[in-house]
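PT: before anyone asks, these are the final sequences, not the draft ones from last week. 1039 residues across everything. Please model them as a single complex and drop the result in this thread when it's through.
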Amino acid sequence: MRNYHTTLLFLFLLVSLPAWAQRQVVQGYVRAASNNEALIGATISAPEAGLGTITNEEGFYTLSLPRGEHSLQATYVGYTTATRSISVAGSGQSINFILEPASNELQVVEIQASSLRQKLNDTRMSVETLTSREAKLLPALFGEVDLLKTLQLKPGVQSSGEGTSGLYVRGGGPDQNLVLLDDALIYNPSHLFGFFSVFNPDAVKSVELYKGGFPAQFGGRLSSVVDVKMNRGNNERVRSTGGLGLISSRLTVDGPIVKDKLNFSVSGRRTYVDIFTRQINRLKEGDDDFSPIPDYYFYDLNGNLTYTLGENDELSLSGYYGRDFFGFNDSDFSFGFDWGNTMGSLRWRHKFNDNLYATTSLTSTGYKYNINNKIDIFSFKLTSQVQDYTFKTDFDWFLGDGHSLKLGAQATHHGFTVGRLNFESSDSTLNFGAGSTYSGLEFGLYASDDFVLSPMLSFNYGLRLSGFNSGGKTYAAPEPRASVKYTLNEHTSLKASYASMMQYVHLLTNSGASLPTDIWYPSNEGVKPQRSQQAAVGVSHLFGKGRYLVTNEVYYKWMHNQIDFRDGANLFVNDSLENEFLFGRGESYGNELYLEKVSGKTTGWLGYTLSWTYRTFDGINNGRRFPARYDRRHDISLVLMHQLNKRLSLTTAFVYGTGSAYSVPVARFAFQDVEGKEPSIVPIYEDRNAYRLAAYHRLDLGAVLKLRPRWGEADLTFSVYNVYNRRNPYFVYFEQQKDRNDEQTILGFQAKQVSLFPFIPSVTYNFRF
Amino acid sequence: MRKLFLYLLVPLLALLAACDLEKDIDVELPNHEPQLVVECYLEQGKYIRASVLESSGYFEDPAPPMVPDAEVYITTPAGKRIELKYKPVIVKSTGRFYTHTSTEILSGQPGQTYQLEVVDGKGRRVTGFTKIQPRVPIEEVEWKFNDEEEAYLLTSFQDDANTANYYRYMTHIDSLSGGSDRDFVTSDDLTNGKRVSLGSSYKYREGDTLIVTLYHIEKQYYDFLASISDAKSANGNPFAQPSQINSSVEGGFGIFTNLAYDRKSVVITK
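LR: through. Structure below.
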């Protein structure tokens, strides 16, 4: 019976092939009329043939069309659609589009609707795209727009806790996300324990999140790819964009240095809570009951310089530098703690001919933290660091006949400094140190083919070969990737994908949060690389005159050689870390339902995820499977944006999630200890993560009011976080209830739940001129 | 270290302190099967005594349940089996509580092994071993004053390079009652064979009497104390992972070890 079906399907495919066989390649650029900027992700379609594609990072597209007459459309959000009538005959041809900015809302709406059709026809699945523009409309905690937190509103993506920006994608940890900023890896994408991401919304253009079906050009992490693209300087004039918020301000300046040749973009952002806390400390000086508030701030800088060498060559230089700083100073005690990422990347894009492009880059990226502690004559310094140098080259080769090849190679040198400690006193009575350094070489080689067999059937298949060498041990593995799309009819398509991923560097963390002191560590003799496999199937259906797209995906993910730690592991200043490791496996499976509407006055999405995530380790939970802390049975997010009139838009976001799996002690015993100690209560933990915190839910509201400044543009963005002041659980603990008279006798025990963020209103002023 | 992060959160939490972000909740816990909890410290020249209690569900009666039918035996290196009688007693001078006592006095030599066995009417059985540790002498206790009349304390001893050593360091102000001033465990991982100096911050004043104790402890005691500390800090710290108790005994919770220590008393003077 099964064979019969397969044969039928195959015959059906063959029937549709002949008309398809006679094809030619049409290709070209899509650029903005205002500043000649390449429009990335613009849709090019030939509606009659039912074919389409999107432009790449250079604004370039290639489309294979059957011979004959076609009307070719180029569309991009915020611009008018351009249509050209073309005749496809014996040879390929180049068709470029220059798009004018849209003059009315209706045009914008139409274009957005066509992006849903593009999504329906895309071979890729499990991909979420978000622009900085969208993220800025939505309500945000303290008014700080954050792209990573907005991604948490998409199905299959979860946060680790209240207000944090770490992404848990389909049961994977935040250390298993490949976070790329202009193709360069960012090791720790968060500030202040993950409450804010390192991406300044003004410096970022868009972010794409791959939850599965990973293309072969990506490798090195198990669970997701977060591909962030920085804004490039515009080619027209120098302009400024910025904002003043409750806790931070930001400013971006971009424009041409040499018109049509060289342009730049520089962004900076800094928080200023420390300015107020210092004032408070000064006012309270001399008050013995007041303990001074420590200093805390973070800042980040983004820069981009693009040089167009000629028609076929372009050089670009991107950089990121960010630091968090925490400090405390007293007459004989000083404490400083700083951490952050530094990234620099030089890229060269070369066009060999209309069918072959190459992008070659040299990247340096690193993450580092320093702790300096000084008590009178004693000083204590602790540093950990990871520093990478990467060479990477990628080729895009349009073969015609529906084939587009991607080939590439990557080599990375990793340097790790793990817990370098120095403890000394200035009178030399004390002096000792610890710490280890490691290095590793990581390689990747890949080839993939985007193959449009017919308007109905398209494939993307590829293979990545990856390898890693450290401490005399070499690992290598093939990572096959494949996805397929089959269009059932004009409104419905089916998709399936498989991806195998390897991860050779590991984040050592034994906490539920993203802490700046988490250490990166290489694979070696005793630490095997992590490995995952993921299979997913999905169906997409377009309805309501093409205004709504509903997508349902089912996935299953296996993870091997997952790393955890034995109970009581010491990751802090430990020269034999490997004795603390435990290795195990993980699995995650679930269903993601996603309904989106991108046109009309009201837009938004509704996501529902049903999922299970487990881990199994020999040394944890007596070897029995246990739910991961972020195992979330139900997860719902609803996002609505309504354009009330030309000046005012209203937004709302609602999230609901099953409570996190958490460990609470089930029992206790009294511990007397030796002479000279007071007796105490010791909690006994049994099954790992067996208790569920209360469900998480929250409603946020936002409004963006466009102002009418004398020059430029400006708006006020209002946000209300946690509108109905839900006290969501952050953690739970058990407290001893003592007799108030003697403060000794224990009367009983009480469970307490601690919440983090109550109702928080905020306002941000944004400008652009 | 994890406490540092809680401290780092202070400025943020201070902003939100006005809102009541903590509340009482009801937590339903699974049934806990009570286990024996044994504490037995052998000390040269002292009576051999132990306390045997039971663990209880977290929200049950706070008083630790007694186990009158528990039988406790200590076997000496010479093979003599000493029975400790059930006779709950609080020693007034030290405030220690024992459920099982004997009139035997310990006189063991470093390197000798003693054995513990506890059985009760429910068929529960707890066993353990301890190897007598040599005492490590405190070589020097010194202090230095700063300009604000505060002194820090430095305690030095010599680590034996040939063995893996574990220490517990404790200081008390004025007397041993009322809890310790400082208490921590350390290993010689970073200081093997060196003269080790353990310090404090500037916190002592002229005239303070300080009692400094250096225990040379077994690895099993070190692991037990570390797991106790981890388990306590996991309750109430959102960044910590839950930790199992690393008991030195099998069949229940608790510790069977010996205490070999050097103790010095100093008065801080200028």
